[in-house]
Automatic annotation (TrEMBL):
Keywords: Aminoacyl-tRNA synthetase, ATP-binding, Ligase, Nucleotide-binding, Protein biosynthesis. It catalyses: tRNA(Met) + L-methionine + ATP = L-methionyl-tRNA(Met) + AMP + diphosphate. CDD domains: Anticodon_Ia_Met, MetRS_core, WHEPGMRS_RNA. Residues 787-829 are annotated as: Disordered. Pfam families: Anticodon_3, tRNA-synt_1g, WHEP-TRS. InterPro entries: Anticodon_Met, Met-tRNA_ligase_1, Met-tRNA_synth, Methionyl/Leucyl_tRNA_Synth, MetRS_core, MetRS_Zn, Rossmann-like_a/b/a_fold, tRNAsynth_Ia_anticodon-bd. PANTHER family: METHIONINE--TRNA LIGASE, METHIONINE--TRNA LIGASE, CYTOPLASMIC. Belongs to the class-I aminoacyl-tRNA synthetase family. This is methionine--tRNA ligase.
Length: 882
């Protein structure tokens, strides 16, 4: 709602003639009308005296606070975050959309893109692919405002819409519906009114959202266009293919899952792109197998519906974390079946497939063989009555379902019987010589992590054996062999093939990536529990086909990330999971930085709210944020935002350049070797050098007044250093890079091998200062810990399932297991204080185990608790024996 200037209002301010005719101006008007926020429009004065903090053409001014937002997308988010119907997770998606829009769509629109341009088709295709979730594109969402404003000049005419509608009808329908929305109609009318009054003599480039060409050394800049084209290997280029382990689709990823594969892979992919390499990064969800069938039964839905449900959780979680996949796909596709069949038939033809008989449990009641997870019974080792068919949660031992006493079908409680079933086996034994030869060379050339080499060596040392690759299931990839119509491939046979099929769903020329070992390097990211499948089974599978496959070059693995004092547990609500990180209200760049700073590269690491807050306040805010903010504020206050003439030949500058280049060289070497934590420490060390440089040179009013030439050198070199840091930060915190570039008013900088402190030319106009980070009050620690601490038993209200004291009635079996655990200290032995302390811990841990079993907690959580109990008992036994 536009108002008279006398009323309190936000202001849409033109800083260049004709700027109100730009798509950027339409974005601001749309956001203000949608939010119902009063505003005034201030055209640029004819004498050019309008404020121009960014010379961006149009800005949003907040008179009450003195804030000026020169980036239209940021301004849209600022306005709409005050709108009550915009949910946090919808807002979070806009960060990744905004990054793409900033670098790809907005410049194309500003340059006069029409519906017939290839750039238009690419942009509309990108938007069309993201219209599966209509909720995220409500008229009140920032994504809708940004895309509508940019598409309006392209789709304004009926002819343009007809040209696009044949290929992208979803986008056109959406556009026409939103065009009629009252707030949108009002904004378009206001925009047209302003546009019609724009001077006709204004050059076209000034009436768009494009910034004036910055004064910068163009040799160091880079444009990332990987989302606007199909990426294929290039002759003479360094071609890097990156995959991250495909997570099971039957659960929501927690922070340990995210750091273990997708976030680590994203850091390396972004680094490789900003170095100028040719990169393809693919990922997806693993959707077949027993785990999916079990979860589908538990949630009383079909396997397909379950996969659709959880795929969305994964997709949205990774988008919020700004994981920049070139393709994020699924294994439940026709291409997956076709490629798996082709690989299997070649293995069979080459004599690497055996047939053998296995004895399994068969349920007479529903006439089906039972996968291990569908069987429960009494453990043959410890007598625990609820042992699973693959592992006992009582003693932690691995077992076979056929060994269980009193087995019962988990689906219907019937007693299964042993029955023989034919299965297919991959004969790994015949593959071992070739695999050993490949492993020796690949692990040396690619500098594999130590644990991945250790795990692979242990398999080879023990000797490879035939491995079963089929299962008596219904949900999986079919087996192209007569007599196996009622069986599917074992999920760990065809899951890695998902990398190939996801790439094939990205481009029909997928074999140029996957059958091109001389020209493509394959980097894979995963947790250590997936190593053997990627270094033994999957390579053996590919080698056995005799095709010329692109095999693993570098393997990057992580240990486990623990949460506070224990493990992440979705069943008990303990820990932060991908779909609720945005609920904390803490920006994604802080999450990314902290997780990468504690990446469990050589040993398990611990997520702690105390260290999380300290990391933000003591590192990001006090170091990086302080340096950039201090430089930009000073240049704006003393130099009207213009970089002065400067020299880098004096002692302090020469010393800084030398010190920075030492660290820069180490940074590049670290990330080339995928040493992600080391790279993070190094760019923060470079930022520290910047703060020290400002401190040593005493940048203040006195320096400006009394030694102007010296001050010129300091501020210009510091700005150049901030520009360098923006590129080093990009792999870790891309939105922070955007913030620095906005303030410097510069394009993305390439990560170079050296730095001369002369990238920004004298006379360049920078932007207004922003705060990159905000302080997290230490008082929030307990609030956040409690929010993600899971179920608090004592505070739960009494229900029909509890008695008046809040206690749940125990089943006969639970009551039997609730007997006091023996202390392990024989009569006649004098109890020491250490023994008594351990006895207390054992009692507490025993109570925890019993409670978890009574609550039917997740098997993994019970096993962890049992392992802890056994460890405590062993410690006590050692004390008694001493």
């Amino acid at each position: 709602m536009a108002v008279t200037p006398a009323q309190p209002a936000l202001q849409v301010v033109a800083t260049l003639p004709g700027a109100l005719a730009s798509a950027a101006a339409l974005k601001l008007l749309l956001a203000l009308e949608v939010a119902g926020t009063p505003y005034t429009v201030m055209p640029a004065p004819a004498d050019g005296s309008a404020p121009a903090p960014f010379q961006a053409g149009v800005v949003l001014s907040v008179p009450a606070t003195g804030t000026t937002l020169a980036n239209a997308n940021t301004a849209v988010q600022y306005v709409l975050r005050k709108h009550k119907s915009v949910h946090a997770w919808i807002r979070a998606k806009v960060d990744s959309f905004s990054e793409w829009d900033l670098h790809t769509l907005s410049p194309a629109v500003a340059a006069g893109m029409s519906a017939s341009d290839p750039a238009a088709a690419s942009a509309i295709s990108f938007i069309n692919d993201r219209f599966g979730d209509s909720v995220g594109f409500k008229p009140t969402s920032a994504a809708a405002v940004i895309f509508f404003a940019n598409l309006y000049p392209v789709l304004a005419t009926k002819a343009a819409r007809q040209a696009v509608s044949a290929k992208f009808p979803t986008v056109v329908r959406w556009f026409e519906v939103f065009e009629k929305y009252p707030a949108y109609a009002a904004a378009v009318a206001a925009w047209k009114a302003q546009s019609s009054s724009a001077p006709s003599s204004v050059p076209a480039q000034l009436s768009g959202a494009k910034l004036p060409a910055p004064k910068v050394d163009g040799a160091v800049t880079i444009t990332l266009d990987h989302h606007s084209r199909v990426i294929l290997p290039k002759e003479g280029a360094r071609n890097i293919l990156i995959t991250s382990a495909l997570p099971y689709v039957n659960s929501i990823p927690h922070l340990g899952n995210i750091i273990g594969c997708v976030l680590s892979g994203d850091v390396f992919a972004r680094f490789a792109r900003i170095r100028g390499y040719n990169v393809l990064y693919v990922g997806g969800t693993d959707e077949y197998g027993t785990a999916t069938e079990t979860k589908a039964i538990e949630e009383k839905m079909s396997c397909k519906d379950l996969c659709d449900k959880y795929f969305k959780f994964h997709d949205e979680s990774y988008k919020w974390f700004q994981i920049d996949f070139d393709k994020f796909g699924r294994t439940t596709t026709q291409r997956q079946t076709e490629i798996t069949h082709d690989i299997y038939l070649k293995l069979e033809k080459n004599g690497h497939v055996l047939e053998d008989t296995m004895t399994q449990l068969y349920c007479i009641k529903h006439e089906s063989f039972l996968a291990d997870r569908f069987v429960e019974g009494t453990c043959p080792i410890c007598g625990f009555e609820d042992a699973r068919g693959d592992q006992c949660d009582g003693c932690g031992k691995l077992i076979n379902a056929i060994e269980l006493k009193n087995p019962r079908c988990k689906l219907d409680g019937a007693s299964p019987i042993p029955r023989d079933s034919k299965h297919l086996f991959l004969d790994l034994k015949t593959q071992q010589p070739k695999l050993e030869e490949w492993f020796k060379k690949a692990s040396a050339d690619g500098a594999w992590s130590a644990n991945s080499q250790t795990i692979t060596n242990s398999w080879l040392k023990e000797g490879l054996k035939p491995r079963c690759i089929t299962r008596d299931l219904k949900w999986g990839t079919s087996v192209p062999r007569k007599g196996y119509e009622n069986k599917v491939f074992y999920v760990w046979f065809d899951a890695p093939i998902g990398y190939l099929s996801i790439t094939a769903n990205y481009t029909k020329d997928w074999e140029k990536w996957w059958k091109n070992p001389k020209n493509v390097q394959l980097y894979q990211f995963m947790g250590k529990d997936n190593v053997a499948f990627h270094t033994v089974i999957f390579p053996s599978t590919l080698i056995g086909t005799s095709d010329n496959w692109t095999l693993l070059h570098h393997l990057s693995t992580t240990e486990y990330l623990q949460y506070e004092s224990g493990k992440f547990s979705k069943s008990r609500g303990i820990g932060v999971f991908g779909n609720n990180a945005a609920d904390s209200g803490i920006p994604v760049e802080v999450w990314r930085y902290y997780l990468l700073s504690i990446r469990p590269e050589n040993s398990d690491s611990l997520f702690s709210w105390n260290s999380f807050i300290a990391c933000n306040n003591g590192e990001l805010l006090a170091n990086l944020g302080n340096f950039v903010n201090r430089v930009v504020k000073f240049i704006n206050a003393k130099y009207d935002g213009v970089i002065p003439a400067y020299a880098v030949t004096e002692g302090p500058e020469k010393k800084l350049i030398e010190d920075v280049n030492v660290l820069l060289k180490q940074y590049v070497e670290a990330l080339e070797a995928v040493k992600i934590r080391q790279g993070l420490r190094l760019f923060m060390d470079i930022s520290s050098l910047g703060n020290l440089y400002l401190q040593d040179n005493r940048i203040d009013n006195n320096l400006f007044a009394n030694s102007r030439e010296r001050c010129n050198n300091v501020v210009a070199v510091a700005a150049n250093l901030a520009y360098l840091i923006s590129s080093l930060v990009y792999p870790y915190m891309p939105s922070t890079t955007d913030g620095i570039l906005r303030q410097l008013n510069l394009p993305l900088r390439r990560v170079t091998d050296s730095w001369a402190a002369t990238d920004i030319l004298a006379g360049h106009k920078i932007g207004a200062a922003e705060y990159l980070f905000k302080k997290i009050e230490e008082s929030r620690e307990e609030e956040l810990r409690l929010k993600y601490s899971g179920k608090q038993g004592p505070s739960q209200p009494a229900t029909a399932a509890t008695d008046a004291k809040g206690k749940q009635p125990m089943s006969k079996r639970a009551a039997k297991s609730a007997r006091p655990a023996p202390t392990g200290v024989p009569e006649g032995v004098t109890r020491t204080p250490e023994m008594e302390a351990l006895e207390k811990k054992i009692a507490e841990q025993g109570n925890l185990v019993r409670q978890l079993k009574a609550d039917k907690a997740a098997a993994g959580d019970i096993k962890t608790a049992v392992d802890g109990l056994l460890a405590l008992k062993a410690e006590l036994a050692a004390l008694v024996a001493a």
